[in-house]
Write a structure and sequence with these properties.
Elements lengths: L1 H24 L7 H4 L12 H32 L2
Helix pairs in contact: 1-3
Amino acid sequence: MDILQLVLQVLLGITSLLLTLLILLHKGRGGGLSDMFGGGMSSAMGSSGLAERNLNRFTVVLALIWFVAIVALGLITKFQSI
């Protein structure tokens, strides 16, 4: 069971980093941190609709994997002490 826990922890670390990166890649809606870092200037040069939809889908799938890894680690931790 220790190898499964290690694999889930590595998966959680990788998905956390990738999820952060993907969220930062999303087009800003204006008025937030994206404007502070130059996102307001590039709003006219926004990505195409297809690219944005694919980025959304990939972000949602990665978020689900991240959530499943957290729940699985929680269950393993809870039932390991029994």
